[in-house]
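[job 0412] stage=fold_complex status=start
inputs:
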Amino acid sequence: MDRFERRAQAIMERGDRIIADRQKKNTMIRRISFSVSGLCAAALIVFGIWKSPALHRVPEIPQLPETVTTEAAETTEPATEQTTAPAEKKTTKPKKTEAATEAATAIPTTAAPATETAPALAAPVRTEAPQAVQTQAAVTEAPAAATEAQTAAEIPVSTAEPEQPTEPEQQPTEPAQQPEGGEELATAPPLQCPTQAVEVATLPATALASPVTAPATQLATEAAATWEKGTSTPEYTGRPEPDEYGIIRVNGNIILPTSEEDPIGIKTVCSKMGYMDIAPSYIMPGFELTRLINEEQSGSRQLIFGYRRIRNDNNKTDYLWLVYKMSEEADIPENSGFSALADPGEVQVTEINGRRFRYRYDNDSQMLVAEHLDGRYAMYVQIDGLTQHGAERILMSVS
Amino acid sequence: MDNGASSYLRFLDGDNDAFVELVREYSDGLTLFINTIVGDIHISEEAADDAFMKLYVDRPKYKPEYSFKTWLYTIGRNTALNYLKKLKRHRFSPAEDLSYISDETDIEAEYIKGEDRIIISRCIKALKNEYAQVLFLVYFEGLTVAEAAKVMGKSPRQTTQLLYCAKKALKDEMERRGIDGQI
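[job 0412] stage=fold_complex status=done
writing structure:
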């Protein structure tokens, strides 16, 4: 190795050391930068979540049903009928077996009567469409009887409970399997009903209150009336349809029918439902209609509008309740809505657009309650969370 | 493309023997050239090593528009100028890194062939740095005036003027020393 090689070797060794140091430094810088950037990203995410308004949002109040009917007299009726339903079912069993044995022994072609009772509380009623079932009946001792008889029987619609769907079909076979004395009995195999035409029909709750005694053919035609084969199903237009009062409910939002005379829509709904047609003409921006309840009680009914507003600055929630009441019998007395209005010292009486209102504002709870009575009609207002000026501004806009 | 360029390209492709060839071919000339700038043969050797170290570690891109020698000497000159700045501070070098350092006479005797050229070389060292550089590049390294201008960072016209002055100064120095170059 001459001096040039030694010199080159020394240069390369020093160069390799420098390259290794650089690689170490680069690796360390890369690791540190990755970890630091990960920490920064995590800190940013945590900060974003911490400051996110979604974290402080009040959960949605679940929607109540549209109409609540609470009549004590009606609720007892289904219960009594429900107890009688199994009794009727039992009484029909022997009839059904008799009809089946007669059909098997003597009559070559019979139409079995369809008598069946429906359970009162099953919400989805399982109905089986009528269909012809061919059964073979072998007659043992009767010489005149045909050895093989085909009976085309109309199987009744069994609107029985889902746990016992095949009970009526198995009953005719019981006497055939247990022959008694020298009676001519037909040994008919158990009826096998193909389940290819099973349809599920959902009946409204009011229909379920009374027992279903309709024959099978009638139920079948009713079911078929809703949807006929060969016809296309109604197209989904994507726009929710308003109900009979013009109210649209979509995804938890309630949209009232508005017009130029009634930009909020409360008066239109009230007049359609038969309540007092007055309402605030001004409701502050941000309030959303989240509840609309129409309650019927014995002798009276009431309509409740529930508005809610979530403030962005402090995440507090303001409420505005408008309650319209109508008594069918007597006039509504004072203080029937709010007991807070019973104290005559603090209650203020004012006329708003020719109507007498009694109201009171509580500074501690920031709540305004008001009532307006007109014979059998009443209107109650409750505003939570607003200042007295803001609450009175809504109240004074009632027209 | 001269040999130095082809060796360097082979080195860039991963052939370390090509780097040894570069050192063998250009280290002495580069050292003597840097010596005309620095004025110390040991520091010049070290600076030359650093110039080769730049080639080995950084692997700079070679532009074929210049000759490889011009390019390498330009790197060497810049390294020498950096060394001159560093020399103002205290400097420490590991002893093992200096094991290969030879004596100046050995390098001169091996690199500059002929007695007359050695005498001229000794006279050149007595001149100003710029005169010594241009004379060394043109007469000992065989560069053209334009290439020498590139290495020195001057225009060709400046280099021509500098070469004229350097030759005049060399003549005066040789006349002062006598034929054998001794004072």
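[job 0412] summary: Chain A touches chain B through 16 residues (CB under 8 Å).
[job 0412] exit 0
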